[in-house]
Design goal:
Layout (H helix, E strand, L loop, with lengths): L5 H11 L9 E5 L4 H12 L3 E3 L2 E6 L2 E10 L3 E4 L1 H6 L4 H23 L11 E5 L7 H11 L5 E8 L2 H8 L4 E6 L19 H19 L2
Parallel strand pairs: 1-2, 1-6, 6-7, 7-8
Antiparallel strand pairs: 3-4, 4-5
């Protein structure tokens, strides 16, 4: 099944997650940027608060598309020691790349969340949402970082994923929900009619809209 866009994918995913609706312990965390429109629909469908959980890839100097690790919200850093050793990446090079990506991570967190503090994650059931999984590297890093905040349960949730990636990610989370697991998979974008890049402004708008909806709901 192909999705019309991320909005439709999020609505489908919310339907697959309906057992988590209207539960006070549930929080939806989106992996920006593409995961935010999906997570917004999930949070709205489940009547749950929405926040962002950022992950930045650490690219090998000169081969930036090749990940040697990742950093995530909360100060977590993960390194792929096999890549670091095989390419003989120095500690100094790692620190330079990490510092650059940390600055961008902090910029995005401030831009997306504005003055709203991060949601409390301890003892909460967290739905970690992205628009799809190809290699699963971002979701893997996000789950490892999130685990350090002592949530009660982590559920990775995506509209579409490679079947083998779902199995790989399962190791890091308590449960994984993949609405569609087509084979052959190739790429996430192939399963969307519209897979345009999500902008920073769209992320800000959706985050603010979700926060307003939560405030309105709590005052009823």
């Amino acid at each position: 099944m192909r999705f019309k866009n991320r909005k439709e994918a999020g609505q489908r995913l919310a339907s697959d997650l309906k057992e988590y609706a209207n539960r006070p312990d549930v929080i939806v965390l989106a992996l920006p940027r593409g995961g935010v429109p999906v997570a917004y629909e999930v949070a709205r469908g489940l009547n749950a608060p929405l926040d962002v959980w950022l992950v930045r890839k650490l690219g090998v100097p000169g081969q930036e598309e090749l990940a040697m690790g990742a950093i995530a919200s909360g100060g977590t850093r993960i390194l792929n020691q096999d890549v670091v050793r095989s390419l003989r990446v120095s500690e100094q090079a790692i620190e330079q790349v990490a510092a650059k990506e940390q600055k961008e991570l902090e910029r995005r967190e401030k831009a997306y969340r504005r003055d709203r503090p991060p949601l409390e994650l301890r003892d909460r059931t967290v739905l970690l949402v992205d628009d799809g999984l190809a290699t699963g590297a971002s979701m893997h890093a996000a789950a490892v970082a999130l685990r350090q905040h002592d949530p009660k349960k982590i559920i990775a949730a995506v509209p579409v994923a490679a079947p083998e990636t779902c199995q790989d990610v399962q190791v890091e989370v308590d449960e994984i929900i993949c609405s569609e697991t087509p084979q052959p998979f190739y790429a996430v974008g192939l399963w969307y009619d519209n897979f345009d890049q999500t902008t920073d402004q769209e992320v800000r708008d959706l985050m603010e809209r979700s926060a307003s909806q939560q405030i309105a709901g709590s005052t009823r």
